[in-house]
């Protein structure tokens, strides 16, 4: 099933047209989004998701989103969802129609979680490193590049995923021109080594991960060290465990990188997922 | 006025919703576009525009567009346009709704040309060079970066234009990490020096310009040399003339770059525009 609620709180038919052809979200990819995991009716990390929506909107100089209205919207979608188990709520916020003067477009859509994503959480995935084509040093100098904003301009992210699919690989890990790890097209990269979890910093032009944040919070309480710092690409293969992390993936283990098997991190993955899940009990 | 025709050839109300909330053009910037100038009912460079639409679609692995259908669509929009003078027809082609299995979305919309763009053709413009954050050497290595495809993922292009606006500047000229000139967010860069017109090559990750192509064709017949080759950023200020070129801009002279006045290219601009216009008489 799918459930759609427009920003004014009205439920609408997700199969009907609701967007104008001149919406700048469509014609210019000029908008931002979030995907929130919902388990048994409870949205996870909603505060961090809404905070990131605000930060992304600010980077695009969109009107500040009314977070209370967005929170209500998530509740409306969840309330109309009738299937058990997990779902995702996608929030989309655009600059709105170019020729109406009517202001931004906003909606939330409830979606099922894809079967492959669920299976991958258990089986683990293969991944390939791909160049992202920028040097993290540019991030601070050039805010117009919007590095670190979760925008609707995801054509490159989608093209990278198609490229991986042609290679027969499940996931992409982007690498910067300086040889440091960035992120996946729709995930955060986390490595575990000797009791420490590490992830690349937002100053490298990556999104601060909401699920990664929850995992680190849980891990710290369980005695892990955590570091948000640059990570060299050549460290990925030698870590105790490599993970791609997102709302939908949770903590998904990478078992093969660039065609080579990684150290077996099955137990480590199970342990980290248990920590993450314990955040919501 | 605005005129909208959907890809099946039906005219529709441009102020009504026609796009689903799960259209991948909207949620992922996953689509391509073109903007065609129409003068007195005649579309300019329609063949090159449609060829570029095809190339962009191929880079995104979209289904090959039916160019005869798109050409008809442009004719339908022009036929329904009742105002004299110039207009633009924007073609938008997306991967379509994520959850329908119904295939791509396509439409053409007829729009008036903005007064500022028309005035700038005569007055000339100020411009600022901004980093685009990639090295042109990556273009061939990393096709998933879609450099040189005219995609809907234009959030960075729009952010760069907003950045210029805050600086009180009209136009942006993007520069690569290797110090070569790339393009504007929605324009092609052309310099004139000693009887030669130059523009950066597609291998640098820029769009091949349709208006630049027409200008070069016309200039070659009038005895100019033309070169499509890398152009160093430090050559912009010393050229006889610097121009930003697009369907809507035609050949617009840059009179001030990064705050410094450039050599007066008023006459040169008039001459080049006359050459360009002569292509359509």
Automatic annotation (TrEMBL), chains A, B:
Gene3D superfamilies: 3.30.470.10, D-amino Acid Aminotransferase, subunit A, domain 2. One of its GO terms (cellular component) is cytosol. One of its GO terms (biological process) is carboxylic acid biosynthetic process. It comes from the Bacteria. Keywords: Lyase. It holds the Pfam family Aminotran_4. One of its GO terms (molecular function) is lyase activity. InterPro entries: Aminotrans_IV, Aminotransferase-like, BCAT-like_C, BCAT-like_N, Class-IV_PLP-Dep_Aminotrnsfr. Belongs to the class-IV pyridoxal-phosphate-dependent aminotransferase family. This is 4-amino-4-deoxychorismate lyase. It comes from Actinokineospora terrae.
